[in-house]
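Q: Got a minute? One more chain.
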Amino acid sequence: MVKFDLSNIQQSTNNIQFSMKQLILVAGCWLLVSGSNAQTITPKLQKVFSAFEKDSQLKNAISSLYVIDANTRQVVFDKNSRIGLAPASTQKIITSVTAFELLGKEYSYKTSVYLNGTLKKDTLQGDLIIKGSGDPTFGSWRYSDTKRENLLASIEKLLATPKIKFITGDCILDERSFDTNTIPDGWIWQDIGNYYGAGAGAFNWNENQYDLILKPGVKENDEVQIIKTEPGQQLYSLINELKTGHKGSGDNGFIYVAPYTVNGFVRGTIPLGQKEFSISGSMPMPSLQFLDELQKKFDESHLEIGGKFTTSFEYNLNKRLLHYGNVPLGSFISPTLDSIIYWFNKKSINLYGEALIKTFAFEKKGIGSTDSGVAIVRDFWKQKGLDPDEISIVDGSGLSPLNRITTHSQVEILKYAKTKDWFPYFFNSLPEYNGMVMKSGTIRGVKGFCGYQKAKNGKEYIFSFLVNNYNGSPDALIKKMYNVLDSLK
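A: Always. Here it is, folded:
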């Protein structure tokens, strides 16, 4: 008869049972700690948020704060998360995430140069055509390859390859990829002439921005002298109504110029006591500014244009048709989308958002328009399960006071982004404020923050915090908002 020694088996069984008990104990402790953390953070947020709402700056305001646990996806705090509020630039996170999904992080714009005619020796019998694709970085100082002087030199070099010295026809800028409505509906008059109010066309140059260099007077209320613009603007003039403010009064100067206009105004005050002071404006006609600079470059290199420097917009006005082949002499490729998004969020460049929203429409429908791009954004998130009424927008940057977004939708979109392989690029684009990774937003009466926070105990949170119609100092409000958000640290 065979005898079995069961002592080792029994010992193994006891060890397994002990290990299971340990596992259950650890799991139980984890759940207890997790629940304890949730129970700790929620009452803390309730307390600080309740005090925040009772502050005198908020007496006529509405606030919304929505926080979830980034790992469990459980709601940590919710106040007014389904109420649509003006988001200001926190809206950029929606445009950014949508761009990564619809265009891809490697997406780039292409500006192409065409020869439309017959090349005989050093003469092009026809037109030189440059086709814009909506590239918001064309001529931007943020990248080495896109700087104005480098691009102008590259175009000159491109024409030097076939040794062109004379073009009998026109130099035409084709802007038909986007519609002619460069400014989204709802942008206000005080914004659109200033650098942050630069709209997007099929052709953008130097981020459609220039600096107005000024000289204040010697005493308060003296007239202010316009010294120059950089780059030089020779296509329109400003009626100067600026005055000198008291020392330390800061930049209270505003430029009032509408797109496609040749006259505008500059009003307000700049501070006393500075030799020079600059404010930045938006170009009313960036395509013509580019053509003016290109003409100067051609003159320097003795490349002669027999016709005019003009645009497809002017061709259309004169009922002229613009046809040419589809094989370019050469093209200029923009930085990739991940790099564009980096600056879009880090420096809150409204132009980039407006170009992207139009690009969604261009890629899907063949022509870029804000309204079509907005519809595409809302439909995309509807397909992902979000109520489109939670994303009631009219632009791509958040500058319009007509935008209405819920904190719930922003957190859902931030949560969605965290699941994607391009997330590190998006996360890296978000600025840091108050020791927290988050996008801020500011327009008159509006302040917002949304982003991600990892607490000292290792918990990770996704949040959105919007305030509309507050009174008093923005700086004072920000400190109070930070005090609420510090609960997540």
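A: The radius of gyration is 28 Å.
Q: Perfect, thanks.
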